[in-house]
Predict the structure.
Amino acid sequence: MTRNIVTGLDIGTASIRVVVCEYKNGSQVPQVIALVKKNSRGLRRGYILQFDEATASIKEAVQEAERIAGFKIKSVILGVSGATLESRIIEGGVVVSRADSEINANDINRAIEATEGGLPDTANKSIIHRVPIAFKLDGKKVTGRPEGLKGARLDAQVLFVTYASNHLKDLLSATESAGVKVEDVAASPLAASLCLTTKLQKTAGCVLANIGSQTTSIIIFEEGLPISIRVFPIGSTDITNDIALGFQIPLEEAEKIKTGEVDANTPLKKLNEIIEARLSDIFEFIENHLKRLGRNGLLPAGIIITGGGSGISEIESLAKDYFKLPAKVALPAVSTSSRNQIRDTAWSVAYGLCIFGADSEVEESMGLKIARETKYNIIRWIKELLP
């Protein structure tokens, strides 16, 4: 009997994480078989700078996962992040094709495809996801899918998630050079949201902020669907560096002070000022993006914080004061969604990739279902460019 195995590969700037899961008959939650974390080499802010070093570190992580799982890992779902990961909402439409004016699946697909022509600057970008977020029929908003309705013109509003083609090519090449096939690609913020946000939060409206080592990524949900993905070139390492400079101490000690692992033998007021100043810089990036979308102060489910930076003391209250929104660290969510097999949100991207790549019937958000139905298959043509 063939086992339904899915492996998520999260290649971060500071570390590489591999989660191997098995979906068993009758279970909607995958069983975690292996969790592996290895230090990354050859990357900066999510991009490969030294190909051989990056490939070697990926290979080490995969081989360790194989040792723990007890079998050969043949393929992975790859998460992508970095400052060139971004999204844009584009509108487009078509005339309904049938003589009786009834909309069918072909009309819906044509309307979605028509939006792609309005996407600017695509020469050096790859489309990772196409997510339809709204439809209009003869200028009026449609609730749900428009199939079966009658009208003359169908317009679609689609969220395109794109990534720099050269960076994607490097990640695919390094992963496959490490000995595993890339079965699919998913934006890391989307993957993390699958195990860190609830249907209620996404329907009400929320932002999931992943404060990584060198970048901060966000995904914003409204009415159950993702409406924006963005990555900013600032992370928790910047806070560590500020503490080290401010108190003239080693980076290792600064990191432990930042996360509260050791008591700070430093003036507490100055320490809080340093942390709050850099967190304010991170929050400012997020707030400015929310303002551009017209969503600042208007997301009832607030901001959900994850990643290495989420371990900073008092981050919930600081975020609540800054955004004037509810704020919480996402720690309990990943534990609940993995049946207590995973308790650290740092694994949320790799674990979420396993959910994204599952072939079994799992409880999915509407956003994931639509993304899977209409995803833009970039794997084949990118591989054709590989040496």
About this structure: Residues 95 and 321 are 49 Å apart (CA to CA). The chain has three domains: 4-83+165-190+340-384, 86-163, 198-329.
